[in-house]
Amino acid sequence: MSPSPLKAFAATDPGFPALPVADLLASADDLRSRIRLCFGLSRDAFDAEVQPLLQRYSSYVHLLPATADNYFSTPAGLLNLGLEVAFYSLQGTDAHIFSGRSTISVRRQLEPRWRLATFIGGLCCELHRVLSHLIVTDEAGGEWPQFLIPLGDWLASRSATRYFVRWRPNATESRGLGVFVLPLVVPEATLQYLAQDNSIIVPHLLSSVSGQPVYRDHNVLDALVRRSLALVIDRNLQANADRYGVPQFGSHLERYLVDAMRRLASGSPSWFPNREKSRAWLGSDGLFLLWPQAAHDVQALLEADQLAGIPKAPETVLDLLLEAGVFARQPDGASTWFVLPPELKTAAEAVKLASPAILLNGVTPPAEPLAISLVCPPGTTRTTQKPTTTAPAPAPAPPPGTQFSLLDATEVATSPAARTSPPPPVSQTPAPPPAVVADLAAPSPPPAPSPPPAAAPTFKLNAPMRLNPAVRDALAAIVGTLNGPGSAAAAAPIAAGLFVPLAELERRGVQPALAGRALADVGLLVHAGRDGPATVTADFRGEPTIGLVVAPACIDGFDPAAFEPAAHEEP
């Protein structure tokens, strides 16, 4: 009787020992001590509040590696990855304010919950890999049910001494799967504690674990987790390159690039398909992004997030997304396409999304595709219909009493017929009688009421073209609110220029760091001193507000001296 394939596999694969959970955590004592210090808890409080999380997470991931041959591919790789990302995410909360629109007392009450939720988000950020990328079996061939029980508990119930890992071929990353096993790591009492006295902490945590953005509010928790994950992976790849050669760089960046494109598609007007000067065009043959313009927008957004390891060259971004299957190649293997949108005169280089849903799923209002095909050969130009050479038909005579417009008179006066034909004779009308002349010389009746005063000047952004498109669109929308009622204005004049609250930029999908850097690059940011911060604090609508001051020279019709100051800058 020939041995089964599983027995042959087990004979050649040493597998992983079924160690107790206490031994797993003992190998990370140094990192656990740093986490306890960062929480600022006593040993007893740490053991009661945080230690159960670490034990349950260790029991679930055990000694599983995070990847087969890339970052954290050694035994306990997923355990170490989760602990490191959780630590750096927790550390990052010291420099951020959660629930910024709440009162100080409410923020003080919710801050411990936000810090714990951010720690959990970092700890569980890669749980989905256990469900989508690998299969675990014991010595008897039994397969671990990942959705039902932690790996450590399953091994103990089977009295297993070793277990084996098989990697799924061509596995697809599905971050949303991590939500289904979150209850196996986070106790129910902890989730209830996070949800107490608020309705946003748990949704933001689930949004971060599942990879689904929160469109109505900026998710500070997820931003900290993503930044920490990129830092930890980049450091591990660099260390592996020094020790073991060159690993596969860049495979973890797909999520950040796709996430940035989705954020731009949902928050930047210049990324909504089929609009004037849009980066995205949706036709009958698919969704296309103008390239490399779209790559520059993605890079600027990720630079504002301060993520480590993000590629700088559009060619590298293109290669990564082609390899990940986000972009589609041409039938002949070419990386880019050429499209001719309605507003362009010549064909432009673009990339094609493998599916429009990658970018437009959940974006409201939904985009309507054009009824035309956008793909064209390189060098295609848009031709215009030339007028025929036949003489135009004479215009019909206007009906009696009709007055010529100024445009009609100009066309008649400048037409060839008008220049070649003699002028009509001047009619000789008799002079009015003396009585009529006397009547004309009499005092005129009271003048008609004066016309209403001229409308207020129209405010319009007039920024340089080199200003970041996302920042330009957001500022244009903010400046446009000045043309409406004062209660709807999203900005206010101060002595130095136009004060723009940071919250108004974030509401329009622009990160404040990106806006400050973009305005400073074109010389439109006031208070951007070398030694001082780019932001100022002003009294906006009766509350101290942090914002940026935009130079008035880039706003048509704006004169700070003509306004009653609505915002007062604090020293």
TrEMBL record:
Biased composition (Pro residues): 421-435, 443-455
Annotated Low complexity bias: 377-392
Lineage top rank: taxon: Bacteria
Protein name: Relaxase
Residue ranges of every copy of the Uncharacterised domain listed in the record: 17-334
Native species: Rubrivivax albus
Region (Disordered): 374-457
